[in-house]
Model the fold of this input.
Amino acid sequence: MNHPLPPETSDRPLAPGQRLSRSARKSLSPETEGEILALAAKYPDKLAATLPALYLAQAELGFAGLEAMKEVARILAIPEGHVFGVATFYTMFHQKPVGKFHLQVCTNLCCALRGGAQLFEQLCTRLAVQPGGVSLDGLWSVEEAECLGSCGTGPCLQVNHEVYEEFLDETRLDAVIEACMRGAVPEWGK
Amino acid sequence: MGAIRTKADSQSYTFEGFGSDKFPNFMLRGTGDLDNWRLKTYEQRHEGYEALRKALKMDPASVTGEVKASGLRGRGGAGFPTGLKWTFMPKDTEERAFTRYVVCNADEGEPGTFKDRAIMEYNPHQLIEGMLIAGWAMQCKLGFIYVRGEFKWLIDKLDAAIQEARDAGYLGKNILGSGWDFDLLTYRGAGAYICGEETALLNSLEGRRGEPRVKPPFPATKGAYGQPTTVNNVETLASVPVILRIGGAAYAAIGTPNNTGTRIFGVSGQVKRPGLYELPLGTPLDFLVNDLAGGCSTGKKIKAIIPGGCSAPMLDAKDFDCPMDFDAMKARGTMAGSGGVIVMDENVCIVEAVLRLTRFYAHESCGQCTPCREGCNWLEMVLHRIEHGEGRPGDLDLIASLTPRINLRTLCPLGDAACGPIDSALQKFRHEFEHHIEHKTCFVKGPKLTAGISVH
Done:
């Protein structure tokens, strides 16, 4: 019995025997590949390079989907299943594309006591994004974050895992959004 | 390497009298000054690397002895004596030479805790020096600093500081002519709270999923990459140069007899001056909250304080005079934990606060042990329906029957941590839960703490 296999999508894992169509395959640039191999030599065991390699792959491909995982596994010569397990365990590896500006607002208790939850709701309404989703123009994605380590200076907002805005209020929120639109904030992965 | 952050910091670090003999400043020197992280500043202004020179002249066992004499207890949460922990590392024998590692736990993810960040931001060299001394005392080959993924700018800074130290001959081969080789590597986590647990951290450091390991074997026998490893918190390691510089006995004279030295307390929540305050252990909680942090920011009465990061059981008004040290806190049924003090005024709905914390634990449970994976989700569901006016009469008994089945039944303390806030809230603020179930509405009229459109 030979059932035709459905094409692989990035949000669904591969079934045994399932293959990506050749045109859909993505590979990392030789520079990134070189960086990953250098990482493998840096740590006592090459397995330890899994996390940093996934960061590099995520930066290049935009998200750590199946293509990125497969590439990391291929370059480091480690099991694909291991990379899949790691990439899906940690919240900072995104299996789906995020917006050009990925905004995370801390809504844990310390920030919530200072209005984090309300700011998060405002942000969602302002940018017309569902929490955890991406806006239609692909520019914004918004996420509730668990403690960004800024409890005394909360509420805290992080853009693209890089820029950190503390003592967040409506004015500062506007300023961050404006800075993103102006191009003053590096885009995701850049 | 990325850019070093140049944005000024608006956090409060100091208070009147800070830096005097009564309130010595060991850990927060130069905070607020963005150039303070450089090696030059550390050497010129903060007696940088003097302690290392002193340690390298002593033999490793007497360095450990000095730390033991200081009575330093781990600042990460558990309060385990640091010197004792160091002695668990195996010594080289004639048959076998070990490769030993020292790991710094900088996966600061506990809500309410933000102290390690300040040390890495302003005094990375103090941490590096502490790791060097720890490395010498245990004769380690390599040190790792595991930093949480969100702190990317701190990793860039640490890397820059490590490079400075390497260029100056403090790291690398034959350090300061002692014949001992040691180096440091940073490792970036990827957003898992559980990696703050030491064996989960070691798994993550090896590039695996951050799931806690079964103990024994303890890390001192089989840690990172299967080798003997000691994991210490940032603040613990940064205290070590101070101990070597002023002497173990002098350090032990600060604080209370079994709880020596100073530690950084982070005050957050509804206070006028949130921030980091370094105080000798045993300082009363209300002194910190009312005198230093300026009391409640909303002008209301303070209802509850979580004294040691969100995993610590909360305290109500009768316990606000509690001295902040490991033993006194334990005697009052809570824990000193990581020193993160969260203050809530009387307008805060305790049910909602506990729901927010439980949601955090349910989200961050690694999923390895069934009691925690399932239990935390059940607790969240039950609390969610109580908070949203759908509570049932038997729900409080249901919660009370759930927590003992999670507590102490998991490989790591995350399950216990999830139970702490709920148990203490049920014990001290039971009437709020009952009000929610009976009247289908909130006991107080404070602002909302959870976002309505949530994805969790």
